[in-house]
Amino acid sequence: MAGIQILVVEDDAIQAKLVRFLLKEAGHTVEIAETAEKALEVLQSFLPDQMVWPDLILMDIQLPGKDGLELTRQLRQTPIYDKTPIIALTAYTGPSDLARARESGCNGTISKPIDTATFACQVRNFLGGVTGLGGVTGMDADVPADRGDLLAELRNSFLAEGLEQCGTMLRELKSSSAYGLEKVERMLNRWAVVASTLGFPEISEQARRMEVLITATSPEYDEVGRGIETVHRRFCAATRYEPMLPPALIRGLKHLRIGLVNFSEEESSRIRNAASRATVEVVIERMSGENVEHQTGYDALIVNQCTVPAELVLHPPHWPLPAVFIGSRSSLESLPRLSSRAHDFLIAPWDAEEALVRVHRLIGKAAPAEPAGEALHAQKRRPRILITDDDPDMVALVSYTLGRFGMDCDIARSGQQALDAIRRHPPDAIVLDVNMLDLDGFEVLKQLRHNLATTAIPVLMLTARNQRSDIARCIGSGADDYVVKPFEPSDLAARVDKIIAASRIASGRR
């Protein structure tokens, strides 16, 4: 179904580009305005005299000059826009902040940093309550194929800009005692929000610490300068990072032959280049999706489901080899109907190194076959999942996600709490964060795997985007699967569902 017209008022170029991508991916038409004044100009172009105007406005609160709340109040006094849904985009979500947004006329808020995995769904949920727009809830089926690594482009732009901005700020702090701390605070807030969204937690955390320091105290300029220098070092460290495949994985892929089904030459090059950077001696070949069930001579397949005809997505053939499927969120629905041979999946937009990691995992540990006609999620009762994480926001997100997919959740706030809870009442599966203060996820996993009573409980590990070494340890320590943060909620739920089903098949339970 066709999308709707959305005006995004956002002064941050990276945030605007990311929001545009996510909304266009969901089928919407998007216009961007950098300031309140530009937004008013864009609104004029919607031809209100012909009864054509935006169906929704996403309003950044922190705008230069006239802020988003003032613009919202102005629009609410205009008859044409007094009923147009306006959703505030804000990093400030305290009760008083939310109350100000409501008093200004906003219909709701979406907090920053935006969750790239759920943002389009959040927007869609707001639209579901708008008269005449309820039908948009089926738009996920029209998610297009991946058009390149946009997130990598955004990350690179953010790092380049951040390094330049740090240098400029340090020079101005040293040359002028009149340099305004409000300007510093605004930049720190932007870094904290964007870095968290794009997967740079070290930059985000340092920027947040500096923001708190400035707002809660009256620091000396030298102290502010030292804090900015620390942020600068975080930016430098992030630019030096290059995702590398773990050595064990490189050895495991040696001399394999991998077939790429329905990939363009450009997409195939991304995977070959990832293997080449890691000096993996592996043969990677493009192949047609036709008669793939009769292909021989390959050790594994990577299948681009984004470009597979609809009839094959809905009724996939019996893939003869271990296969990693890359697709949109809606294509996940067809995964339970795949062949019983080992398979895994990635959500577009995809990462080349991650695709090779998934292939290695399938080659080394093929999933057990299941009886024909039984879906992976076929269960007689709701599975019970133990979520182990000391981050309350992450616990809330994981619990909400799994609950929506028919799973009951228990919570452990530390590694020791998890071990105690598992001894009392073993769960059907465990979602285990790698980084915790008392016992980290690897130590918890080690104890589980060395105990006969818990060794067979399936475990899915949560790890940070840029910690490739953690992924290697997850695989080598006996984790059944892993998810990289920030994650796609349906991806997480499907992987938990999959490890539970595989565990029940292996133990002969139903």
Please, could you describe this protein's structure?
The strands form three sheets. Strands 2-1-3-4-5 form a five-stranded parallel beta sheet, with helices on both faces. The protein has 510 residues and is an alpha/beta fold. The model is unreliable at 130-149 and 366-379 (pLDDT under 50). Helix content is 45%, strand content 15%. The chain has 18 helices and 15 strands. Helix 1 packs antiparallel against helix 6, helix 6 (150-175) packs antiparallel against helix 9 and helix 8 runs antiparallel to helix 9 (221-240). Strand 13, helix 16 (441-449) and strand 14 form a beta-alpha-beta unit.
Percent in strands: 5-15%
Question: Using DSSP, what is the number of strands?
Answer: 15
Largest pleated sheet: 5 strands, parallel
Mean pLDDT: 77
Radius of gyration: 24 Å
Count of DSSP helices? 18
Approximate shape: globular
- Return the structural class: alpha/beta
Q: Looking across the biggest beta sheet, what order are the strands in?
A: 2-1-3-4-5
Q: Distance between termini?
A: 38 Å
* Uncertain parts: 130-149, 366-379
Q: Summarize the amount of helix as a percent range.
A: 40-55%
